[in-house]
Design a protein that fits this description.
Blueprint lengths: L1 H7 L5 H53 L7 H11 L14 E5 L4 H12 L3 E6 L7 H12 L4 E4 L5 H10 L4 E4 L13 H21 L5 E5 L25 H20 L3 E6 L2 E2 L8 H10 L3 E6 L7 E2 L2 E2 H14 L16 E6 L5 E2 H12 L4 E6 L14 H7 L7 H15 L11
Parallel strand pairs: 1-2, 1-4, 2-3, 4-5, 5-6, 6-11, 7-10, 8-13
Antiparallel strand pairs: 9-12
Helix pairs in contact: 4-5, 4-10, 6-7, 7-8, 9-11, 11-13
Bound molecules: nicotinamide-adenine-dinucleotide (NAD).
Nicotinamide-adenine-dinucleotide (NAD) binds next to helix 4, strand 2 and helix 7.
Length: 439
């Protein structure tokens, strides 16, 4: 063994030793190379097997992330039909009997709208992919709340064309309220493709399903005030330019407005786009400032307050969720019919865009002061200049168009709205006044 090792790994440069070993050595080397190449082939085979296993796993992971196979079957269809069935007394309103597919139903605005529709007797089916952009347990809790009111939320992705086709096959939805999206401005710098996946590709897949459905539903969907981008003429009006987005999020929402316009034009789809202005309230989104400020203030952690150039405070036209819900339901109720069927246009259909804001911007330091008052805790503020991450310094809505066409009239100011939010937050996260639980 020792000799063989010496011969295979000579202590002096190889040629001398190999020559010394003569014919026997050649045979051994040949055997050795033969077994090395066999081993190499086996290794190659194993690497190939591992690679194909891993790529299969990643395919399964990706498809299960986007396309949950947890739908289908008779029981599932019965649940969908029951959830979609309107329960308004016949003749109680001109729109008695609408049945709405709500995308993003486990989200903040989606859950509130689904509940409001159900409470007035409309049929609602939700769809949501429960992604982990923020704590999915909050989305699951909203789903449970909806289930307790008879609203079924399908666990699925709007990019899943088969699932959408099946839903339209089972239910002739009169309306689609499209709220599913990758929201948030800053996250686009971390995960840009999630914006393309949900806000562009997902939108087109949904529009394809809508245009092919017979009857075609009317579509109401969430654009965003962020489309005003670098605009500085205030208040923002629907007639202002929207071709200078300041973030990828804004760009995908602007793209959505153009994409929906083309489906309206080619297929006769009735489209209403709603530009929401900073929506807040109970069951809200943990990534938004009012929510994360509340969490940090209660936990005694500092909050980062951004300030614009020249020490100008940032301001937002904060809009309370109940006002937004009224705007969404008003849009559904006034949406004209789609004119096409089976993918063919039969005449022009309405294409509308409305601002849904509050018309009274509030600065971020004022927001913090209101939170401090309702939480009865002082915030530890860390004031820094706003980084160039896509946020705009202020928003302010002109809502005359929505007032005229939808009867939209916001009624909750930031103080009253945050009071309700804080009450919900403390109860949802198990705080009791005066106790240090969770602090
Ligand atoms: N909240 C605001 O201040 C605000 C402002 C302007 C616009 N908007 C828009 O309003 C809509 C609702 O916003 P929100 O605050 O309720 O956000 P949210 O994140 O709470 O809700 C969106 C929901 O859509 C789901 N979703 C995302 N991609 C999906 C996909 N591909 N398939 C299925 N489900 C998917 C998410 O899981 C989430 O539950 C969004 O379109 C958002 O862009 C919101």
């Amino acid at each position: 063994m020792r000799a063989l090792e010496d011969e295979l790994f000579p202590s002096t440069p190889g040629k001398v030793k190999i020559e010394r070993a003569g014919g026997a050595m050649n045979r051994q080397l040949h055997r050795c190379f033969a077994s090395t190449s066999t081993m190499f082939l086996w290794a190659l085979f194993l690497v190939a097997m591992t690679a194909s296993y891993l790529s299969f796993q990643s395919f399964v992971d990706t498809s299960s992330k986007y396309f949950q196979a947890s739908w289908g079957g008779l029981h599932w269809e019965r649940q969908i039909r029951a959830s979609a069935a309107p329960r308004r007394p016949p003749g109680s309103s001109p729109n008695a009997g609408i049945s709405v597919l709500v995308t993003g139903a486990a989200g903040f605005v989606g859950a509130h709208c689904s509940l409001a529709l159900r409470k007035r007797g409309d049929g609602v089916v939700g769809i949501d992919n429960f992604n982990a952009y923020y704590d999915p347990s909050l989305k699951k809790a909203r789903k449970s709340l909806l289930a307790s009111h008879g609203v079924y939320v399908v666990d699925g992705d709007i990019n899943d064309a088969r699932l959408l086709a099946k839903l339209f096959d089972v239910v002739p939805f009169t309306h689609v309220l499209h709220l599913a999206a990758q929201a948030g401005v800053r996250y686009a710098m971390e995960n840009p493709s999630s914006y393309v996946h949900s806000n562009v590709a997902g939108l087109v897949t949904l529009l394809e399903a809508c245009k092919s459905a017979d009857p075609q539903p009317a579509l109401v969907w969430a654009s965003s005030s962020s489309v005003y981008g670098l605009n500085d003429a205030v208040p923002f009006s629907e007639s202002h330019r929207t071709d200078r987005p300041a973030s990828l999020y804004a760009a995908t929402k602007k793209a959505g407005e153009e994409i929906t316009h083309s489906y309206n034009h080619i297929y006769g789809l009735s489209v209403t786009g709603l530009r929401f202005f900073t929506v807040y309230g109970p069951w809200g989104r943990p990534d938004m400032a009012y929510f994360s400020f509340t969490r940090n203030i209660l936990q005694g952690k500092p909050i980062t307050v951004y300030r614009g150039k020249d020490h100008v405070d940032l301001a937002r036209d904060f809009t309370y969720i109940d006002d937004i819900v009224r705007g969404c339901l008003g849009s559904l109720d006034t949406a004209g019919r789609s004119t096409g069927s089976g993918g063919k246009k039969r005449g022009p259909a309405p294409y509308r865009i409305f601002n849904l804001g509050n018309t009274s911007p509030v600065t971020v330091p004022t927001l913090v002061a209101i939170l401090e008052k309702h939480l009865r805790v002082k915030a530890r503020k860390h004031v820094v200049e706003m980084p160039g991450n896509g946020d705009v310094p202020f928003t302010h809505a002109n809502i005359s168009l929505a007032r005229h066409h939808l009867g939209y009239k916001p009624t909750t100011n930031l103080d009253a709205g945050l009071k309700k939010f804080v009450k919900w937050y403390l109860s949802y996260y198990g705080y009791t006044r005066g106790s240090s639980k969770n602090l």
